[in-house]
Design brief:
mainly alpha, disordered C terminus, 131 residues
């Protein structure tokens, strides 16, 4: 079972990726999208995947291979570590912490997509993310 906001979030990031030129910004947008998807998969109402730890390790390896802007890359690594921690903070908090680096490195559209995903990841949220 996937998170209800996943489809809307994917659409928002598809627009971000389409509007981003090749290079570090596009790599950063792609890396951000991967981390947002991982955070949403750990958010209620969907139970965390049984192999979430394996997924996060693979994601960390993938992020290292991308040439994202340094401030965003540091934030993404921290978000992955937070999601994999034994007492992980809520996915909402992890996503909210990514909004500022996304705005700084990728622009307002990417930050808006992250904020919409954070709102959708709130416990008790029934609506899908809207960009």
């Amino acid at each position: 079972m996937s998170h209800p906001a996943l489809a809307t979030t994917d659409d928002a990031f598809a627009k971000v990726l389409a509007d981003t030129a090749r290079g570090p910004q596009r790599d950063g947008a792609f890396a951000l999208w991967l981390v947002v998807r991982a955070a949403l998969s750990a958010a209620p109402p969907a139970p965390p995947a049984a192999r979430q730890a394996d997924r996060l390790r693979a994601l960390a390896t993938r992020i290292r291979s991308l040439n994202a802007p340094a401030p965003l890359r540091r934030s993404l690594v921290a978000a992955i570590a937070d999601l994999g921690a034994p007492r992980a903070p809520a996915a909402t908090l992890v996503l909210a912490a990514l909004a500022a680096p996304a705005a700084e490195c990728l622009g307002r559209t990417a930050a808006d997509a992250v904020q919409a995903a954070a709102r959708a990841a709130r416990p008790g949220s029934r609506s899908a993310a809207s960009p």
